[in-house]
């Protein structure tokens, strides 16, 4: 069960994947030196990414949303990840440079909307296409997560519903 289990004596790379609705977790890595770049983790049971290795790894340009624990790992280099609606974002490490704690603003297929913080905020994963076959990068630089914003293949950006009580200061 689960999205992906990795047992290796060598460092490994997980790049450009969508892990969604797996149980009990998205990725379990029983190895050292995990490199996890440009993935989207959504609602994967208790933990999105668990690493039991002793050697630090790298987390760059990933989306972690709707988990009990987003990442449980020994210290990693972490940068430009987006964490949203997790009970606990990180266990065993601190947020890194450019990590954001905000809604990634994705459609129901996990594609970022035009106003998403994911757009042009990722890192060079070395991938030339995303999981839908769209070119990477499409904008100035890579997008965060497994799917690149494609302006030619996008539903209209939804307008947030006004919150009357909040707008008049009752909340």
Précis, in short:
The protein is mainly β.
Tally of extended strands?
Answer: 13
* SSE class: mainly beta
What portion of the residues fall into strands of 2 or more residues? 25-35%
Please give the largest β-sheet.
Answer: 5 strands, parallel
Model regions low in confidence, pLDDT < 50 over at least 5 residues = none
What fraction, in percent, of the residue positions are helical?
under 10%
Query: Termini, distance in Å?
Result: 43 Å
**Average of per-residue pLDDT values:** 87
Shape: globular
Strand order of the largest sheet: 1-4-7-10-13
Estimated radius of gyration: 16 Å
User: So how many helices?
Assistant: 1
SSE pattern, N- to C-terminal: EEEEEEEEEEEEEH
Write up this protein.
2% of the residues lie in helices and 29% in strands. It has 171 residues and is an all-beta fold. It has one helix at 164-167, and strands at residues 4-7, 12-15, 18-20, 25-30, 34-37, 40-42, 47-51, 58-60, 63-65, 69-72, 77-79, 82-84, 88-91. The chain has a 5-stranded parallel sheet, with no helix packed on it. It has a 4-stranded parallel sheet with strand order 2-5-8-11, with no helix packed on it.
Features:
single chain, 171 residues, mainly beta, five-stranded parallel sheet, four-stranded parallel sheet, 2% helix
């Amino acid at each position: 069960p689960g999205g992906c289990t990795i047992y290796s004596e060598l460092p490994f790379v997980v790049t450009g994947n969508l892990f969604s609705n797996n149980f009990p977790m998205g990725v379990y890595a029983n190895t050292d030196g995990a490199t996890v770049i440009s993935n989207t983790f959504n609602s994967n049971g208790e933990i999105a990414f668990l690493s039991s290795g002793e050697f630090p790894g790298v987390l760059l340009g990933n989306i972690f949303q709707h988990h009990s624990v987003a990442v449980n790992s020994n210290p990693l280099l972490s940068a430009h990840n987006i964490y949203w609606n997790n009970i606990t974002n990180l266990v065993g490490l601190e947020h890194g440079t450019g990590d954001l704690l905000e809604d990634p603003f994705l459609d129901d297929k996990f594609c970022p909307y035009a106003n998403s913080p994911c757009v042009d905020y990722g890192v060079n994963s070395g991938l030339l296409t995303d999981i839908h076959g769209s070119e990477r990068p499409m904008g100035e630089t890579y997008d965060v997560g497994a799917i690149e914003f494609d302006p030619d293949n996008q539903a209209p950006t939804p307008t947030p519903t006004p919150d009357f009580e909040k707008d008049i200061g009752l909340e």
